[in-house]
Fold this protein.
Amino acid sequence: MIIKKRYDLVVVGAGPAGSSAAKRAAEAGFDVLLIEKRQEIGDPVRCAEGAGKRGIKRHIKPDPRWIAAEVRGSRVFAPDGTRLEISEEGSGVEVGYVLERKIFDRVLAEEAADAGADVMVKTLATGLIREDGRVAGILGRSLGRAVEVRAGLVVGADGVESMVGRWAGIETTLAPGDIETCAQFLLKGVEVDDYCEFYLSNRLAPGGYVWVFPKGDGMANVGIGVLGSRSESGMPIELLTRFVNKNFPSARVVEVVVGGVPVCGPIKRTIADGLMLVGDAARQSDPVTGGGILNALDAGVIAGDVAAESLEKGDVSREALKEYEERWREKIGASLARSLVVKERLVQLSDKDLNTLAHSIKDKDIARMGLFDLLSLLFKTNPRLLWSLRKLF
Ligand SMILES: Cc1cc2nc3c(=O)[nH]c(=O)nc-3n(C[C@H](O)[C@H](O)[C@H](O)COP(=O)(O)OP(=O)(O)OC[C@H]3O[C@@H](n4cnc5c(N)ncnc54)[C@H](O)[C@@H]3O)c2cc1C
């Protein structure tokens, strides 16, 4: 396939955000190019692959090809082992399906292609073309050759390590405390049931948590997130190895993942003249859980719609693209803002505090509660400990 010299829209990065934006704009009849630097979309996986069923079904018909397991809910363990069990509906954005993202991401990109988008793998954006003060295309390398592609509009969906925003003059810098540094093993030979498990403890995972997500067939994603400001080189792998050796001594590691998740809440400005940022590139992942798949899909659809409308009107100015900012903030902005307040308190809690919180609700009927109701109950039972959350209720 040959990349054309000009498209209506160029989308950089074929993760959930990029593919959903590309699909939407292509469905509206625009000429779209979706580029991915890796040679295989979705591989290597940098994700625990958990996503709520309702959120996924909003975007795509469930398909056994990319559903590794379905779970019934989550268990949260306090540092002293106190266990809280929450139903699937109450568990939030990461619990419901455990996906096979190598296939899921590929299928999303195929859907964009079916809608008419050109999809190019092994194609790396290396810079932006600017004309008349606006972003007007990308510079890059495709299958080893230099390319220059002009575009009416560019979407930066290039994930946590995003450069597109920075090239466009948008402040995207992440401080160490803005990111969870993660490591994950795909384990074979584990005995787990159909619950996602979360282990909270500053000893196990400073400022983060350990997760065990079942993938069926004796397999599970077992991973750790450590707050960047409390992490040292090699620490996530070291702590994860310790946890796995203790809890799954006979398991085999068949895949290792390392990566980062933004937990700082979205950047202030996600648009520039001729450009929108979406998904992890815009830091739209949940600050408490680090879950970003569903928000990336939601914001991707909005970016694709706004791209189509702006191209139709012939106005891709920053002013016109404010429509994107407004719509994605209306959809996910409030929950991201709430999560950020909660995360900022959570990372300050000692293991003793976490135990106190768990004890205060362990005999209450919390199984069917949503995250907000659970927080509200925790606040009511521990007002002094959680005073900084009062503005949420
Ligand atoms: C260890 C770990 C566990 C996680 N677990 C979960 C979970 O269980 N549930 C959940 O919801 N979220 C989870 N997340 C977060 C989730 O993976 C992301 O939020 C989600 O993938 C964001 O989607 P995206 O499309 O914005 O970015 P990505 O999925 O990161 O896609 C960005 C794409 O852009 C490509 N790219 C980057 N730069 C360029 C370039 N210059 N040119 C071309 N292509 C480029 C990349 O190769 C990549 O394919 C986890 C993250 C990590 C690291």
